[in-house]
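Single-stranded DNA-binding protein, Chloroflexus aurantiacus. Tokens?
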Amino acid sequence: MRSFRGTVNRVELIGRLGADPEVRQVGNGVSFCRFSLATNRPGGTDEQGKRQSETEWTTVEAWERLAEVCGNYLQKGRRVMVMGSLRTDSWQDKESGQTRSRTYVRADEIIFLDGGNNRHESEEEE
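Tokens:
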């Protein structure tokens, strides 16, 4: 058995896009892409004892070349595998002064799972 001395922040999700990805340029023309990913998990049971599933929505962000590829090839309903790390941003709400936060997945690899184009993309690929 291998033991880790540090920590691990690794996320792997397989799901479907809930909407077309949002792609834009930020800063010095760096590409940025954001999309929501729907995954299912077992839920409770209904009145007939049938097992139900619950949908979990996760925000995914991709940057640079990976963002461009997502913008060119992904669309609502496509099934993908996303590999990356969990991130949390915090900020002060200007109106209320309260601290707000959001958690999302920063993708470093995306595999397109359906359709005729089974592409595998990562941040390192050019």
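The longest strand covers residues 30-45.
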